[in-house]
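User: What would this chain look like folded?
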Amino acid sequence: TEEWLYYLVAQHEGNIYLKRRNENDIWQGLHDFIEIRSKEPLEQENVIATFAEMTGQSISNSGLVISEEVIHLLSHRKIRARFIRAELDNPLNKRVQDVFPVAGEDVANYG
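Assistant: Here's the prediction, encoded as structure tokens.
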């Protein structure tokens, strides 16, 4: 099976927002970015609109940096991922659960 993952690398004033994986997850205690999972590829406009709805912020197409697709093969599925970097006008509030800001230079310290 295939799965598409879209990660929002949200930045504001030198901070990058990370999401702590919850206790019900195999990757419990680790960190990643705000994500959208889909069983089919999504159009860029839909991805941006969904991230805007999730975060409560408008996300402008100008200034977005979108990665090439990264393919990760697991024994039981194929993951197709893209990373979307966006500079936010305002800090994220608590609307997105388990998300917190980290100074850009400290991101590598989070697994």
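The beta strands are 2-12, 15-20, 31-32, 34-38, 65-66, 70-73, 78-87, 99-103. If you want, I can go into more detail on any region.
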